[in-house]
Amino acid sequence: xxxxxxxxxxxxxxxxxxxxxxxxxxxxxxxxxxxxxxxxxxxxxxxxxxxxxxxxxxxxxxxxxxxxxxxxxxxxxxxxxxxxxxxxxxxxxxxxxxxxxxxxxxxxxxxxxxxxxxxxxxxxxxxxxxxxxxxxxxxxxxxxxxxxxxxxxxxxxxxxxxxxxxxxxxxxxxxxxxxxxxxxxxxxxxxxxxxxxxxxxxxx
Length: 204
Ligand SMILES: Nc1ncnc2c1ncn2[C@@H]1O[C@H](COP(=O)(O)OP(=O)(O)OP(=O)(O)O)[C@@H](O)[C@H]1O
Ligand SMILES: Nc1nc2c(ncn2[C@@H]2O[C@H](COP(=O)(O)O)[C@@H](O)[C@H]2O)c(=O)[nH]1
Description:
GMP kinase activity; 9 strands; 8 helices; 2 domains; binds adenosine-5'-triphosphate; Guanylate Kinase phosphate binding domain
């Protein structure tokens, strides 16, 4: 039996740089992973691609996904729904691939209950002022929406204590280095190695 992949859950306030850090890991081939593409009722931003960045769906399709138990978790964030399709995540993990979920703190809490062996990483801004500036500079949300996201960020930062690791995104290079170190260490954690041996012994 192949060793199961690691479930990597990356959370943190909107605008902290989750997507930027993830892209840097991919671009520089820092470590291999599969990205879990979420479903959302939010409208695409310029340049976002359906099926790559998100599955952009209607409210009706999202409700159907909930009722048919297709989602590992879902949450309403500000005015839209976001959810993680369950089947692809399970399949990729079973194939031994590491899977990255980029989701909000409420979603991460729900995933933790179902998959406690996941590695939960909280990406945090150096401070809230920097977070505000990053959201403004990104220029994808109105000031009203930005204020909603900053309000949400104040709550989100308080739940950092529920995570396994906290990484400060001061520079993208630093954040990437820290996440690389976490993933490398988790691959050789005693718990993981013991689990693999137990499975081997069972199969003998
Ligand atoms: N370390 C950094 N230093 C300066 N700017 C950064 C850094 N990391 C990200 N940014 C910038 O901050 C903005 C927000 O980044 P990004 O879109 O990656 O955040 P996010 O956490 O994925 O947001 P969301 O959850 O809303 O999708 C972008 O304009 C990005 O270029
Ligand atoms: N609970 C979930 N949260 C998700 C998921 N996919 C993304 N997100 C989070 O939503 C906010 C807003 O995202 P944005 O793309 O509109 O800026 C952000 O914190 C994302 O991490 C998901 O499947 N489940």
